[in-house]
Amino acid sequence: MVEPVVVVHGGAWAVPEELWDESLQGVKAAARRGYGASIHCYCGVLTAGGSSVDAAEASVVCLEDNPVFDAGTGSVLTFDEQVEMDAIIIDGTTMEAGAVGAIRNVLNPVKVARLVMEKTDHIMLVGDGANKFAAAHGVQEVDPEVLITSLARQTLAKYKKYTSTVYHLFNKTEKPETSGHETVGCVVVDREGHTSCATSTGGITAKMPGRVGDTPIVGAGGFADDQVGAVSTTGHGEAIMKACLARHITSVMGTGESVKSSIQNGLAHMESRIKGFGGAIAVSCKGEVGTHFSTPRMTWAYIQAGKLHYGIHPNQHVTEDL
Amino acid sequence: MVEPVVVVHGGAWAVPEELWDESLQGVKAAARRGYGASIHCYCGVLTAGGSSVDAAEASVVCLEDNPVFDAGTGSVLTFDEQVEMDAIIIDGTTMEAGAVGAIRNVLNPVKVARLVMEKTDHIMLVGDGANKFAAAHGVQEVDPEVLITSLARQTLAKYKKYTSTVYHLFNKTEKPETSGHETVGCVVVDREGHTSCATSTGGITAKMPGRVGDTPIVGAGGFADDQVGAVSTTGHGEAIMKACLARHITSVMGTGESVKSSIQNGLAHMESRIKGFGGAIAVSCKGEVGTHFSTPRMTWAYIQAGKLHYGIHPNQHVTEDL
Known about the structure:
2 copies of one chain form a homodimer.
Chain A: E1 5-13, H1 20-42, H2 52-65, E2 85-91, E3 96-103, H3 109-119, E4 124-126, H4 127-136, H5 150-162, H6 165-170, E5 184-189, E6 195-201, E7 211-212, E8 222-225, E9 229-235, H7 237-243, H8 245-254, H9 259-274, E10 278-284, E11 289-293, E12 297-304, E13 307-311, E14 318-321
Parallel strand pairs in A: 3-4
Antiparallel strand pairs in A: 1-5, 1-12, 2-3, 2-6, 5-6, 8-9, 9-10, 10-11, 12-13, 13-14
Helix pairs in contact in A: 1-2, 2-3, 7-9, 8-9
């Protein structure tokens, strides 16, 4: 028997002070949501459902629905002022995975990712194909305006005002100071040691249409294997893709390193080899939790053994009774 | 100084007898094309260009243009009878990468992948966004009919005749016997130990619109890092994605294992954990070459030190003078 745990993150980046409180409340609520979904299973209240995958999905849906995060509602805008979202979910027991890239007009990309996992032979569907698949499975199409916040519009406007648009649209750019990341994610292990992960994002402000980042990539935005554990990452997507960050972290975990030092190892490699920064949450199949980030801040929270843990600043770790 | 080498593959699958000769001629020609492109650099004939990335691109363009392979011209068809292609290219020196997913109507997806690598901040562009980017960079749009061979049409017709179409479009399917893979790829190391990889595919017959497989995923379809070496994979895409096969193989290479046994390790893990089959080619930054496959056959060829090596059956290794 493993002490079950639900760990969530709300993105690794600078996180300006005006968003601290709302972001922390958001990750705490999402951890409760996922843990609550799990409890049904642990207590045997539900005979069907209530798996670690259900918990991961429930937490990420909660984060997608919260407009403070760059996922689902609140997603940042592409250069042409659209919302295009990426998401992944992985069942560590079977290593089955589902993902969507550059999907539009749906409230919860992670739900579509789960449909891809469960209803197709494929792992990843992108663009119009992903939207058509979602529609065929009864996922409601929403007006894109529903997903767009005033903060997302302001951030894109600021980006366009201070950057040379033509150059930045199709050429290499300096990273604009306004392009924060509030990608969200969750990792879970249940009492039987079954692990899962889910990650969801709107990507980066002013990204080119059709850009897919690390989030929906197995081994980059997430990884789960019951033989080791589960990881969800956040940060500079292209660096995370090059580093195969989630796979790197689980590989180190597999050598017997602690979960936290495995994350530190992965982030250190990404910084030294690729000059990239980010963060990750992870859980081992034994229920050991780790969170770490090389960015100024990352919001995270987890629930285990009746306690709620959370933090946003480096070395901050607050514990509350549930 | 490293003894430079160009290694190519033409896909790991059953490869029916009527395609053996054409496939072998194709990989031999592609190895020559890439090596020739490299020679310009090694001899100092060209002062610009001629990098390992140029060699990898040149080989894969040669394979994309050959209708016997499932990449570029000759790509298999989606369930709705379209060609949607995936490709990646990685420069192991910087670990910069470029990729396209579900791109249509271009002759050489690998060239667009290289443009993504060199002209954007991103790694992956998919669907319409990838096509718009290609057009903005002067890549000619072609009539999709140009890419479609009679073999591709026959293979899809056979699939549809023997499978329940509605069920298979949006539900889990048995792998049809007709869905072979002739994904193509190349790995290169030059005299300075600079590595690169490139992989390109039309995917699998009757795939759902928008399906992206392993090929354009860093760490799945390819990986390159001058500190270790370069890998290009082929086989069942979804299994390769779950296994992060290319990253797995380079990780094992990084421990000091031989290139061949690193590939064998990766394929054995994929078979035991995920029940997946495939093949890979790899080269270390020291110029050591390896090829291996767990499918019935894989066409491969390489050129090193004035010799052309090639094979298609297990344990077959033919050597010719250049």
